[in-house]
Amino acid sequence: NHKESYAAWLQYKKIDDAALVKEYQKWASNIESLADSIVIQSAQNELNTALSLMLDIQPKISSDIKPVNSIVLASMKELNLLDKLDVDFDQINEDGYMIKTVTSDENSTIYLLGKRDAGVLYAAFHLLRLMQNREKLDHLNIVESPKNQLRMINQWDNMDGSIERGYAGKSIFYKDDVFSEELNRIQDYARLLSSVGINAISINNVNVHQVETNLITSSLLPKVTEVASIFRAYGIKTFLSINYASTIQLGDLDTADPLDPEVKEWWKNKAKEIYRFIPDFGGFLVKADSEHRPGPFTYNRNHADGANMLAEALEPFGGLVIWRCFVYNCLQDWRDRSTDRARAAYDHFKPLDGQFHENVILQIKNGPMDFQVREAVSPLFGAMPQTNQMMEFQVTQEYTGQQRHLCYLVPQWKEILDFDTYANGEGSPVKQVVDGSMFPYRYSGIAAVSNIGNDYNWTGHTLAQANLYGFGRLTWNPDLEAETITNEWIGQTFGQDELVNEQISQMLLKSWEIYEHYTSPLGVGWMVNPHYHYGPNVDGYEYSVWGTYHFADCHGIGVDRTVQTGTGYTAQYFKENTEMYESLDTCPDELLLFFHHVPYTHKLKSGVTVIQHIYNTHFEGVQEAEELKERWTTLKDRINSERYEDILNRLEEQVSHSKEWRDIINTYFYRKSGIADEQNRKIY
Ligand code: GCU
């Protein structure tokens, strides 16, 4: 029923253009696979399914090269079997691939060549992407290598089936405290992830509760093994989030002190046990000493002590410790003006640079707060040249409309990845920190919190599929243009209709800005309903323990994070950025209230006052949300009705909810400031 919603960007719709079908059939009738492994099997299966659906043929599959028109799959190992093929495997990295069309008088062959089998699979998905977007295949000469080594998805799934910050139904992995039986669904998820180059997944919430603590015990490891083998076939390594206090929680010891010999021994044995089940297990993702989770602080040890203890246990097996830097005081007194949550990660971790083992990676959220619609880039990126770092994004839209509002995040992620840290002078963007090219990192990459659940369209809002797609593509290559990724996704998801392409592309690319317009202004963040994080509540967090304040009074608003008069946060950046943010003259408008407390009458660079900007953007934002809906309705007869109606419903909710945002924000600031809207629009 829900076929198209479910298939996401792997639609493989039958191609109507007879000439093109004929052309594609020339190669697609024969799939010749020189390599043989479960990963190659996946590539072969995907090609087989896709080509039969798109071209209405049954490809012949064989394991040797015959002199016929064909698609050939091979990895570097099989190079000697590739007669006279002139290719240079040195130009690609471990996960890289080449796609080459070689035509002679007698026949034509498309080679899908990977350094390893995973590359062959990525090449197969690439070829299918080209075909779904109706590209010519007769002169292909594609050379691709992922820029990031670790391309990871973090599931925040709990074993009771709930998903922390999940907005698309329940978990596809677990139900009622046991593993789901629906392995097909997990396999289809693996296909989606692998098709955009994801190569790692952690399968449980970073907040590891009672039941999930057992995932590393022999009671649940057989099930983890089963899931790992599904992902393995798609080139994806499985990781687990662990409870730092497992030694205690599982009843074996009465301490979790990382320097205690018994604790060390316990984890070493634990690692051995896990690797007996899963020889290519990825490692642990750890949230420690953060939001009431246990960690080394209890024992007066630091994060390096904690991470290194686990790293030693995993090291003999090649496993990684991914240690999260989301560490801050979540029991702050709002009266305490000296503590600034934004400073926390840097203050905790920067002094430990160089103390972490080689197989530890610090996973740092993109901003110093928590995935707000707009916040500064974390100053920790680039500040630890001797410690592996990776990025954490959030694909699930916790603070960006929870998949009920359209908010396409690729433009945001691009801005963050392109942000110049100045770590090595001008031209030191974040993307070159996390891809490991700026400093000699052994491991690095990008992770993101997933946005999928068991909804039939995976993501609740069907257009939110674009965020998952975009995350994968951008992580593969942060230099890709947002427009390119967007068009690729639309073509595969909705077909080749030009109007559809144009309208959806406009909708997606503007949606982040639109969402920002009617929510919290000028980088100040929060102003959401506590706990749920959906909907406006200006003072929701203002007098609470979470360290997330805007300090609005009758004169002005914003958080003074300057060195001169504020919390000193700006000093955590490299000099050029410190100076830019420190001064009102150079601080960019969109982050003004993140860095400064200013009067409502302060003039922005755009020429309008802060209060007028708040009014203007909130009125505009609602109008723009309405335009999103209008655009969509022009596509009524061009999109299948289920997807059309699904998306229309969400856009309608967005329009009406954006008005709630507009009116609450405008009214709040009108009442605080007593300053009227210059244009005299309705404020309550
Ligand atoms: C946010 C989110 C929590 C989550 C936490 C984390 O605070 O609201 O649900 O656990 O981030 O990233 O650990």
User: What is the count of DSSP helices, taking H or I runs of 4+ residues?
Assistant: 20
Q: What's the story with the biggest beta sheet? A: 8 strands, parallel, barrel
- The percent range for helix content is 25-40%
Cα distance spanning the termini: 46 Å
Low-confidence stretches: none
Supply the helix-strand structural class: alpha/beta
**What fraction of the residues are assigned to beta strands by DSSP?**
5-15%
Name the assembly state. Answer: single chain
Q: In order across it, which strands form the biggest sheet? A: 7-10-11-12-13-14-15-16
Our Rg estimate from Cα atoms comes to 26 Å
Mean pLDDT: 97
| Count of beta strands | 18
Q: What global shape is seen?
A: globular
Small molecules bound in the structure, each named once:
alpha-D-glucopyranuronic acid
Family: Belongs to the glycosyl hydrolase 67 family.
Subunit structure: Homodimer.
Active site: 291, 370, 398
Keywords: Carbohydrate metabolism, Glycosidase, Hydrolase, Polysaccharide degradation, Xylan degradation
Question: What do these coordinates show?
Answer:
The structure is a single chain. It contains 20 helices and 18 strands. With 684 residues, it is of the alpha/beta class. The protein is globular, with a radius of gyration of 26 Å. The relative contact order is 0.08. Bound molecules: alpha-D-glucopyranuronic acid. Residues 164-165, 206-207, 287, 291, 326, 370, 398 line the site of alpha-D-glucopyranuronic acid.
